[in-house]
Amino acid sequence: MAMTQQAHPLRRLLSKFTSSDSELEANDLLLATERAGARRASDCACGEVVTLCGVVRTLTLHPSSKLPSLEVEMYDGSGLVRLVWLGRRRIVGVEPGCALSVTGRLNSDKEGPVMFNPRYDLLPAGRA
Fold it and tell me: Dihedral angle at the C-alpha atoms of 58, 33, 117, 91, nearest 10 degrees?
């Protein structure tokens, strides 16, 4: 019994040395998601209203004279979700590398999971 309890921290330490940077980032993001009480993107179904936490990977502005939109790709450690704000050209503080908590209805299209006009909170660095 004592060996099992001691092996767990050792196994965790060894995995840090043998895991890639992207695996370590994903694990850190998943832990932050759990601490924040949010759900993993990979566990959510289309049509659900969910709260997700993650880091902005990309930001794209789709300028249009009729309806501009701001599109963000957010990664939570389990998967990517596109966030689209219609009628917005910019959101102060939302940029690649920033941490976000978003709440909205999860939809799906040909590119994968997407959330339109989600409520959002900027999180301090390292919180997602």
Answer: -50
